[in-house]
Design goal:
This protein is α/β, with parallel strands linked by helices and 756 residues long. It is built from 26 helices and twelve strands. An eight-stranded mixed β-sheet has the order 5-12-11-6-10-7-9-8, with helices on both faces. The chain has a four-stranded antiparallel β-sheet with strand order 2-3-1-4. Strand 2 and strand 3 form a beta hairpin. The chain is elongated, with a radius of gyration of 64 Å. The two termini are 32 Å apart.
């Protein structure tokens, strides 16, 4: 009944050992290269070989762009009208060499003035200069028709676009002159010689003699126009100064007349002496007024002091002998009255007599005080009148001074205007005389150094220069486009990219073959295809501590990446080592092993998982010694549920006991749950990636699903690798012809090995 005689209880799967990579320095260096050339600090080194690989990979892009640009440059060069350049040389000085140097007019040697020279260059390029040159040329000359006609390239563009070419023969004389002026302005170029006052005037045209003729005409016209401008400027300056002199002369006469009229009207003869006299009088009156004010203040103070109750304490009272005598007599009578009052009554005749005497003295004192007060009041009034009189005189004199100052100010203004007009008139007259002397003796500041000659050979196009430029531009654009395509290409192409982006090792690289099917290529044991798979077999023997995983799942992120071919070829290689190998077609959606092996697929894995047969009934022999396989069987409606059931675990446990090696050909990872389930049940998973087809994001997502299923990914395998496409130079040759993966559960069956 075969190795698997019946169902057995599932046995526990062996625990997967966790690999700990203890890298020595050499392995760390290889790991650094796998990460893209990063050093221990995470900084990337410049990998010139990597750049060369990109160029080698995209060489046809580089060559195509290079050829297109080079041919375009050659075609444009061949279709460009030959142009002849003639050059005339001028010397432009900042200031002409004057025969006469007038102080204040000629400044002598001057430094280089960028603004002045840029002005001269713009005058050379101006439209008026082009029109001046065009006016001296014959617009009916045939060469001008050649200049205005399109180049061969332009004619070609007109023909391609279907646009009629402009015909200059239909223009009248005025239009032709305007067109000729435009041609002169367009073909003219002005180039200053750095560090000198030399200017090169060049003209480009399809005719050499015409280029020399126009270049010399432009130089001559510029010299003439410059001289004309200088003469016109001098004439204009003289005319302007004449007008200004006449105006200033009239203005000077008017100002002198106004000054004389004002002096006569105001009777001003010697205004300075009169101002000094009035100022002295005003100063003296101010001093007298100040003294009068002080005298009035003192009199007022004495008068107010005499108005109080202590009138007898006033200094004038104290100084008056009569008042003091009366006060003394009254004091004695008052004392006598008080003394006798102790003896007699107030009505006593003697007492009445004393009292009458006292009253008589009081009347006399009052009369004396009154006289003194009247004197003080009179003194105050006199001082007050004196102050007012002086104030009036000061005010009157001040008005006279102010009036005189006003008249003197107007007089000074008129006098200053006369002086200013006189100075302006003298300066303009002097300037007018100087211009009259120097206007006719200055030389031109522009001189001809070299006349333009017939160039003899065309100036452009420069065939060799354009060829080199086109080649350089084409090469640069080609390389840039190649790197752009490389930047936009997000597929995995080389082993180092897989290690860099996915972080897993590459166990082998399967070359791309051409002209043969993978089955035919594997029959030749000496072919690179067979040798590559033997190398993968060897790598698998060192992938884990226990060697090759007992149960190995072969899967890929997407369809048609070569996993079925890989599973079958590895199974044969392990069988050739003398191992008993069981190959299981675990793709229950689009199986292909039965087509490759030419076996019946009516009974297989799906029947066993559904419980309709025993494991031994699903096993089929192959032409390879010690290699048996289990086909997928009829396609079930629920592959994931069948693979996740206990029967698949039981099958793998029994197969692990009966066979040395179990290899499962699984379905793609993305979009399906089958491969994550099988990867969890297997001892190891081999990820197959097609070079140049599998995208980085897809491979990362597939690897993430495997890690999510707790799969033990032993490494990756690159299939259909073309070293020339990857940028490694010579390739392994060949290509898989008609290799295609069909949609699950439908479609026509192609010849053998059309899956993956």
């Amino acid at each position: 009944n075969g190795p698997l005689g019946g169902d057995k209880l599932p046995s526990p799967m062996p625990q997967r050992s966790q690999q700990i990579a203890a890298l020595d320095p050499r392995m760390q260096a290889l790991s650094t290269l796998a990460r893209g050339g990063e050093d221990e600090f995470g900084e990337k080194d410049v990998d010139l070989l990597e750049y060369w690989r990109v160029i080698a990979k995209r060489k046809w892009t580089v060559l195509a762009v290079f050829a297109i640009v080079l041919l375009t440059g050659i075609m444009v060069t061949m279709l460009t009208t030959p142009m002849f350049r003639a050059t005339a040389t001028l010397q432009i000085e900042r200031q002409a060499n004057g025969v006469v140097r007038v102080p204040g007019i000629d400044s002598g040697d001057v430094v280089y003035d960028p603004e002045f020279y840029e002005t001269q260059f713009q005058l050379l390029r101006s439209r008026s200069m082009a029109e001046k040159v065009a006016a001296d040329l014959d617009p009916n000359e045939p060469v001008f028709a050649v200049m205005s006609s399109p180049s061969p390239l332009g004619k070609l563009l007109y023909a391609v676009l279907g646009v009629s070419q402009p015909d200059s023969n239909t223009f009248d004389l005025e239009q032709r002159r305007k067109q000729l002026a435009s041609l002169v302005q367009y073909g003219l170029s002005v180039e200053p010689v750095r560090g000198s006052r030399i200017v090169r005037i060049s003209f480009d045209s399809p005719d050499g003699p015409l280029s020399a003729k126009i270049a010399n005409a432009v130089a001559k016209a510029f010299i003439e126009s410059n001289m004309e401008r200088r003469i016109d400027s001098s004439a204009y300056a003289k005319e302007f100064l004449e007008d200004r002199l006449e105006q200033v002369k009239l203005k000077l006469q008017d100002s002198e007349k106004a000054l004389a009229d004002f002096a006569q009207q105001e009777q001003i003869v010697n205004i300075g002496d009169r101002q000094s006299l009035l100022s002295g009088d005003l100063t003296a009156l101010n001093a007298a007024l100040t003294a009068a004010k002080q005298e009035r203040i003192d009199a007022e103070a004495r008068l107010r002091q005499s108005q109080g109750a202590s009138v007898f304490s006033h200094p004038l009272m104290l100084q008056n002998e009569g008042v003091q005598a009366l006060r003394s007599a009254r004091g004695k009578l008052e004392a006598e009255y008080q003394e006798k009052l102790l003896t007699f009554k107030p009505a006593y005749p003697q007492m009445l007599q004393i009292k009458n005497q006292i009253e008589q003295i009081d009347k006399q004192l009052a009369e004396e005080v009154k006289i003194i007060k009247q004197g003080l009041a009179a003194t105050y009034e006199a001082a007050k009148d004196k102050q007012e009189m002086l104030q009036q005189q000061v005010d009157a004199l001040a008005n006279d001074v102010l009036a005189l100052q006003g008249r003197s100010t107007n007089f000074t203004l008129l006098e200053r205007e006369v002086e200013t007009n006189k100075q302006l008139y003298d300066a303009l007259l002097q300037r007018y005389k100087e211009i009259g002397i120097t206007s006719n003796v200055d030389s031109n500041n522009v001189s001809m150094v070299d006349i333009a000659l017939n160039p003899g050979a065309p100036f452009k196009p420069d065939f060799m220069g354009n060829f080199i430029l086109s080649a350089f531009v084409g090469l640069v654009l080609g390389v840039l486009l190649a790197f752009l395509f490389e930047f936009l290409d997000d597929t995995l192409r080389r082993p180092d990219e897989i290690e860099k982006h996915l972080g897993i090792g590459v166990l082998g690289v399967i070359p791309k073959i051409q002209g043969l099917t993978p089955e035919e290529a594997s029959m030749d044991a000496r072919s690179a295809f067979s040798e590559a798979y033997r190398s993968v077999r060897t790598s698998l023997q060192f992938s884990t501590e226990a060697g090759v995983p007992k149960v190995l799942l072969v899967t890929s992120p997407s369809a048609s990446e070569g996993k079925s071919t890989t599973a079958l070829t590895l199974a044969r290689n392990f069988a050739q080592l003398g191992r008993r190998v069981l190959l299981i077609d675990g793709d229950l959606r689009n199986p292909s092993l039965h087509r490759i092996l030419g076996s019946d697929n009516s009974v297989g894995l799906s029947n066993y998982l559904a419980g309709s047969i025993r494991p031994a009934a699903a096993i089929k022999p192959t032409k390879t010694l010690r290699l048996t396989y289990i086909p997928s069987g009829p396609l079930p409606p629920n592959p994931a549920e069948l693979l996740a059931g206990p029967k698949m675990v039981s099958l793998l446990s029994l197969a692990g006991e009966k066979f040395d090696q179990v290899i499962i050909d699984g379905p793609p990872i993305m979009g399906l749950a089958d491969s994550p389930i099988l990867s969890n049940l297997s001892s190891g998973t081999l990820l197959v990636i097609e070079a140049g087809t599998t995208r980085i994001a897809t491979a990362k997502a597939a690897l993430k699903r495997l890690f999510g299923a707790r799969a033990h990914v032993v490494g990756a395998l690159i299939t259909k690798f073309d070293a020339r496409v990857a940028g490694y130079g010579s390739g392994y040759g060949g290509d898989y012809g008609g290799y295609h993966y069909y949609s699950y559960g439908g479609g026509e069956v192609k010849p053998a090995l059309t899956k993956d």
